[in-house]
Amino acid sequence: MTPSARIAAAIEILDRHLAGSAAEQALTAWARSHRFAGSGDRAAIRDHVFDALRCLRSFAALGGAAELPTGRALMIGALRDAGISAETLFTGEGHAPAPLSASEARPPPTDLPPNVALDCPDWLAPLLEDSLGDDLPPVMRLMRQRAPVTLRVNLLRTTRAKAQSALADEGISAVPHPLADTALHVTENPHKLRNSPLYLDGRIELQDAASQAVVAMLPLTGAARVLDYCAGGGGKTLAMAARAPARYVAHDIAPQRMRDLPERARRAGIRVDLADSARVASLSPYDLVLLDVPCSGSGSWRRAPEAKWALTPARLAELQQVQRQILDETHEFVAPGGVLAYVTCSMLRAENGDQVAAFLRRAPGWQCTVQRRFTLRDGGDGFFCALLTRVPR
Length: 393
Ligand SMILES: C[S@@+](CC[C@H](N)C(=O)[O-])C[C@H]1O[C@@H](n2cnc3c(N)ncnc32)[C@H](O)[C@@H]1O
Prior knowledge:
Elements (H helix, E strand, L loop, with lengths): L2 H16 L4 H11 L5 H16 L1 H7 L8 H11 L20 H4 L8 H4 L7 H8 L3 H8 L5 E5 L6 H10 L3 E4 L6 E6 L8 H4 L3 E3 L2 H9 L7 E4 L6 H9 L3 E4 L10 H8 L3 E3 L2 H6 L3 E7 L12 H6 L2 H18 L3 E11 L8 H10 L3 E9 L8 E8 L3
Parallel strand pairs: 5-6, 5-8, 6-7, 8-9
Antiparallel strand pairs: 1-3, 1-4, 2-3, 9-11, 10-11
Helix pairs in contact: 1-2, 1-3, 1-5, 4-5, 12-13
Bound molecules: S-adenosylmethionine.
The site of S-adenosylmethionine has 15 residues, from helix 13 and helix 17.
């Protein structure tokens, strides 16, 4: 496919998304009806679509969208944002999009309002500013870019240096990431990872660097029993188990999310018990309970940009309620002297420090010993981790 034809495909997919389909669904539907498109075409089109979703407001404004964005406006805006003249690709020739109309060809505004330029929803700007202060503009600028591809090296199976060199032998370049001693930042050929023997035999996993840094903060040494209460796919369960031996118990309100965990654990040389709520209670107390709670995901909007635009004040309030509830229903599982680790991939104070402060007011006999927030400026996704210790009586 030509660059213009890829843009035309992205326009079609974005229009389908703007009409209500999830972006992944719209991409899959397009690929099914265009089987001639090769993997390189599909990857390039996907990049166009996700770039546009990350930068929805600014691209729409640069593309001259009136009220609501359209696929065409987004792609015209994307080209202008990259300093490329849209006329060179919107030629109408072959499979290229139709030439620009007179209104589309009008020069774009030169000074976009700050929330538009930063692709920040208006209602969220004050909340993000309250949380990030002067870091808001640089963090939101980074949020407009693609997320880095980062690996976690399974230290049970290899070392970071050996993994780096084995990857290089396969043509995959990676460099140590400063945020965690297990992290490698992939700088070349990330598309080769899925078929790499290192991935297939459990020596590496895809995992964000800040996510790994959070796991490195957990007091695992000497812990005999560890519960991952919101385990999901089990990324953090596996990362913990690769750091220190213990009995690892994984739970999730939606157990089907953990369906790949046994196979991933087997590949990684790790044992994990999957447990329902009754079993979680019967196995308590735990030395460490990890609560990687559901949240706005504001730290990972680069990877899931639809979530940035879908979040509403009502949904945020609902999430805060679930977070409170999870803290309240699990803290009794922690042994005296043990730790409740409260983690989000959010940068919003309302889901982080405010939740911890409110929990400490509700639950006497607990203290917060460590609290750290990561932003995109640290080199990974945005995360928050607070270690709450149950003071022995
Ligand atoms: C942030 S994700 C977990 C990601 C996972 N820890 C990882 O590292 O791959 C949050 C998870 O919490 C689960 N969840 C939501 N509400 C819950 C609840 N009340 N109790 C337990 N798990 C819950 C969701 O199903 C989701 O899988």
